Amino acid sequence: MKKVILWSFALLALISTHVNAQTETTGEKPIKVGNQWQMPKDAILRSRAFAQKLQKSLNLDQSTTKKVFNAYMGNAKSVDEIRMGKGSEKEKKDAMAANQHAFDESLKTILSPEQFSKYLKSKT
After folding, report:
1. Segment 50-78 mean pLDDT
2. What are the phi and psi torsion angles at 96 (to 5°)?
3. What single-letter DSSP state applies at residue 30?
4. Residue 4, class by beta-carbon neighbours within 10 Å (0-12 exposed, 13-18 middle, 19+ buried)?
5. DSSP classification of residue 5
6. Model pTM?
7. Can you tell me the distance from the alpha carbon of 124 to that of 119, in angstroms, rounded to the nearest whole number?
8. CB 119 within 8 A of CB 58
9. Does residue 26 have a pLDDT over 80?
10. Do 110 and 68 contact (CB within 8 A), yes or no?
11. How far apart are CA 93 and CA 120, in angstroms?
12. DSSP state of 59
């Protein structure tokens, strides 16, 4: 009987350490996006990846890359809200198209005309 109890505690300890290893504590608090919660670092990672992609493909300098990053960060919240929001798929698709157009217009003010035309060609 003592062996069964001992083995039960050992198994419980093993399972609890596995569960604790699965949790991630970054200190960041989730934010509400639409009707779901997301971690803020998701938008940061996506913005950084987008800015680095444009930096490589368009040969952007650091200042312009930072402006692209900031523009994408501002756009990421509205994209997440559209995706998580209520409404039909058609309404979401129309809202995403309008949002993409507004984002492209903001990039038009950041990038040179040559860089912007190259960006538009790379999107298709």
Report:
1. 93
2. -65, -40
3. P
4. exposed
5. H
6. 0.64
7. 9
8. yes
9. no
10. yes
11. 19
12. T
